Amino acid sequence: MRVRARLLTAVTTAAVTGALLTGCGSTPAEELEDWWSGGGESRIKALTDTAGRVNEVSMRPMDTWGTACQELLAEVAKAKKLDTLPSDNARGFWKEALTAFEHGGSECADGAGEKDQPRASAGIREVQTGISRLASTVSMIRNDLKAK
């Protein structure tokens, strides 16, 4: 009786383990689709919009810069709460974009608050670098999703 119970337990464990390893796994493309639909797309759109606003206000008087840069920093904080981007191709660009937005946005906001135009302008240039990194992120994600 004990042998039969142990054998049944071993067979059940093997079957469940096999099902977990083969039947329930997600493909990288499915994980990327989940990330995209689970907040990635909306965070990228929000970052694009707010970084674009920072770029736009850079042509206006400096007293408008701080607010736009603070809004960008708020969006960066939300984006950093997302799960890790599951695309090996896009992950580096994503991290570079977030870093550029965070550092540039901070320099912009602090410089604008202190009426330090060179510092604020340097922050805006860094935000502009982040915009190109974000565009590369989106391009890599699209390529990965097409390849599935």
Q: For the residues shown, what is the average pLDDT? A: 86
What is the H/E string? Answer: HHHHH
Report the principal-axis shape.
elongated
Helix vs. strand class: mainly alpha
Low-confidence stretches: 1-23
**What profile does the largest beta sheet have?**
none
Give helix % range. Answer: over 70%
Which strand-content bin applies to the residues? under 5%
Q: Alpha-carbon distance between the termini?
A: 50 Å
State the helix count: 5
How many E strands? 0
Radius of gyration, rounded? 23 Å
Characterization of this structure:
The structure is a single chain. The chain has 148 residues and is mainly α. The chain is built from five helices and no strands.
List keywords for this structure.
disordered N terminus, 148 residues, mainly alpha, 5 helices
Topology overview:
Elements: H1 2-23, H2 28-57, H3 65-80, H4 88-113, H5 117-146
